[in-house]
Amino acid sequence: MKKIATLALIVSSLTSLYTFANSQLINPESTEETKALYKNLAKLNGKVMFGHEDSLAYGAKWWGYNSDGSFNSDIKEVTGSLPAVFGLDIGGIGLGNEKNLDEVKFSDYKRYIKEVFRLGGVNTISWHMYSPIDQHHSWVKNSYVKELIPGGKHNTELKSYLDAFVAFNEDLKVTIDGKKVWIPIIFRPWHEHNGDWFWWGKGHTTEDDYIALWKFTVDYLKDKNQNNLIFAFSPDRSRMDIDDFDKSYQYGYAGDDYVDILGYDNYWDLGHKANTLSVSEQQKQFVKSLEKLTDLAESKNKVSALTEGGQEGVTEDRFWSERFWAGVFANHKTSRISYALVWRNNNEDNGKKGHYFATFAQEKNAPDFLKSYQNSKTVFIKNIPNLYK
Ligand code: BMA
After folding, report:
1. According to the model, what pLDDT value does residue 15 have?
2. Which secondary-structure segment (H or E) carries 12?
3. Gap from CA of 307 to ligand 1 centroid (Å)
4. Burial class (CB in 10 A: 0-12, 13-18, 19+), 27
5. How far is CA 293 from the centre of its chain?
6. For residue 22, what pLDDT is reported?
7. Among 204, 210, 337, 371, which one is most buried in terms of CB atoms within 10 A?
8. What's the pLDDT at 118?
């Protein structure tokens, strides 16, 4: 009896491995490199890539690239390597601005994306979109979505914003060995929609309208042949019921035909100021949420990721070893996520101090970060496998 059960278990895990390795992108027209990236994200075998938002654009104490054209990064200063995943945000692109909402020139973003790709890393784009109706920034509780989706009187304005992204995206092409390659992008629009802080969020947008918005965005970009995009869904952990994870996670989920990566944004379990649970309780929930996320992704043959998160101001000196990576590498389930990206190290000169989520050279947590860099399970650009073949 026991033997049969063991055999059944082996067969079922082999079947799930097999189907997982064959997971398909939602866009059948995806470029070769995009398909390769997706397939390889599913095959990191317990290793997890480290990502950092705006890592090459600026750091806590510096800005921009060098006069000789070389690039900086707080992560590189501490470890000698760039992160494996580079995040950037195109908030402001629809307004026709030269710079994004955090003052990074879109033309510079193109340089960083190309450099990251040249080195074998991964690029991911989020979008703190200004309202196409009245150009208000993202943090407002106005009900714009109904008017933006098909049937609404401002759908044309949304299209023009998406066109601005298409124009940017079309420029992300490089020639390698005489072949034109379109740099694959993990595209993560309409994030944290289960929270109520963005205009596409819960409360001021219905679930049905959010789903219509998501579907419209994906279909529109597919129709425009944006075949380098991998679509990531990323609700916020703080608004999920850990005991009813699958259901609360899938609030606003447009369906398996519309999502490639099951992501989530998690600041909540990592010492968020409003979380009153003890550190050890938070850690248990961090682990549990990762297990639930990766189980759900695996049941759908999809890739998963911690798409955004961290601890603001990294106040704990052993944050990386005792919280972040301790959770990510807690067990074989948690470490199935493909990458974990921490948010930006805001440049202090703009007046907003203490708004950083990664390490930097002068920081007390830097030695702990360096130790995690030396852990063979973490992936940075220096030890990244070939993800595009
Ligand atoms: C938020 C904060 C803001 C920033 C925005 C887009 O979480 O970091 O300061 O403007 O992301 O990067």
Report:
1. 45
2. helix 2-21
3. 14
4. buried
5. 14
6. 60
7. 337
8. 97
Pocket of ligand 1 (CB under 6 A): 89, 91, 101-102, 128, 343-344
Residue of the CA atom closest to atom 10 of ligand 1: 102
N- to C-terminal Cα separation, the chain: 43
Atom 4 of ligand 1, nearest CA residue:
102
Question: What's the CA-to-centroid distance between 330 and ligand 1, angstroms?
Answer: 29
Contact (Cβ atoms closer than 8 angstroms) between residue 174 and residue 117: yes
Q: What is the dihedral of CA 383, 41, 34, 189, to 10 degrees?
A: -110
pLDDT at residue 121, as a whole number: 98
CA of 326 to the centre of ligand 1 (A): 26
Residue 354, pLDDT score: 95
Query: For position 16, what pLDDT does the model report?
Result: 47
The DSSP bridge partners found for residue 14 are none
In this structure, which residue's CA is closest to atom 7 in ligand 1?
Answer: 343
State the closest ligand 1 atom to the C-alpha of 128, by its place in the atom list counted from 1: 6
Q: What is the full DSSP assignment across 235-266?
A: -BGGGS-GGGHHHHHTTT---TTS-SEEEEEE
Q: Report how far apart, in Å, the C-alpha atoms of 291 and of each of 189, 210, 331 are.
A: 24, 26, 9
Which numbered atom of ligand 1 lies nearest the CA of 352?
A: 9
User: Number of C-alpha atoms within 13 angstroms, CB side, residue 274?
Assistant: 5
With beta carbons less than 8 A apart as the criterion, state whether 127 and 198 touch.
no
Residue 174's DSSP bridge partners are: 181
Q: Which of 106, 128, 139 to mutate to test the pocket of ligand 1 (most atoms within 8 A of CB)?
A: 128
The reported pLDDT for the residue numbered 351 is 83
* pLDDT means over runs of 10, the chain (389 residues): 50 48 86 98 97 98 95 98 98 98 98 98 99 98 98 98 98 95 98 98 98 98 98 98 98 98 98 98 98 98 98 98 98 98 96 94 97 97 97
By most ligand atoms within 8 Å of CB, the mutation choice from 88, 344, 348, 352 for ligand 1 is: 344
Q: Compute the distance from residue 343 Cα to the ligand 1 centre, in Å.
A: 8
233 in Cβ contact with 263 (< 8 Å): yes
